[in-house]
Amino acid sequence: KKALPVDIAVCTAAITDFKPDKYKKEKIKKNLSNLNLKKNIDILEFLSKNNSYRPKLVIGFAAETNNIIKYAREKRNRKYCDWIVANDISDESIGFESDYNSVAIIDKNGNTKQVDRSLKYEVANLILDEVLNLFDWAIIHLLLQDCILCVSVDNWPLKFGCATISPDVRN
C-alpha cells in the first residue's frame, strides 16, 4: 500500500500464500501440529479489485503444469488483472533454473500472444514492448535496484513501483 499509487503493477509471483497465524519470539520446533497458518493478502487481486488507487495496467503471472492457457485465463478472471503471463513450469528446459523461458501473454479480452523459447531477458523485453505499445510510451532505462523506470511522453513522470524479490518457489 505504501508504494501506491502507480500506473503499472507487475506481480511476478506471490512470496508466500500463507503465513503463521501467531508469531513467536522463540524457535518453533519441528512439530507441525503446533503450526497454524492463515492466508496472506493476495497482492495481485488487491491491486486489481479492491484498490482505490488501481494501476492503469495490472499484470500477473501464472505458473502452471498443465492446461496452461485455460488455467491462466481462469486466474486472470479470478484476480481481475488486465494481463496474465502464463508459464509452463513442467518443462525443465525453460522457466525455473533455466536461462530460457516461453510464455503466453493473455489480455483482458482473451487475446493471446505466444512468446517462443527465448532468453529470459528477451522475454522480459518483449513483455515490456507490449506494455509500451499499449500506452505508446517512451522509456528511459534507469537502474534502480534492478528496476526500470518508465516515463510517459504525455505525462511526466510516470509512476512505476517495483520490488525485487525472487525466491525459488519450487523449494
Helix content: 10-25%
Strand content: 25-35%
Tell me the strand order in the biggest sheet: 1-4-5-6-7
Largest sheet: 5 strands, mixed
Low-pLDDT segments:
138-171
Task: Describe the protein's architecture and organization.
There is one protein chain. The chain has 171 residues and is of the alpha/beta class. It is 20% helix and 26% strand. The strands form three sheets. Strands 1-4-5-6-7 form a five-stranded mixed beta sheet. The longest helix has 16 residues, at 120-135. The chain is globular and about 50 Å long.
List keywords for this structure.
single chain; 171 residues; alpha/beta; 5-stranded mixed beta sheet; two-stranded antiparallel sheet; 3 helices
Tell me the layout of helices and strands.
Elements: E1 8-11, E2 18-20, E3 37-39, H1 43-49, E4 57-64, H2 68-79, E5 83-88, E6 100-107, E7 112-119, H3 120-135, E8 138-139, E9 150-151
Parallel strand pairs: 1-4, 4-5
Antiparallel strand pairs: 2-3, 5-6, 6-7, 8-9
Short précis:
The strands form 3 sheets. The protein has a 5-stranded mixed β-sheet with strand order 1-4-5-6-7. It has 3 helices and 9 strands; from the N terminus they run βββαβαβββαββ. The chain is α/β, with parallel strands linked by helices.
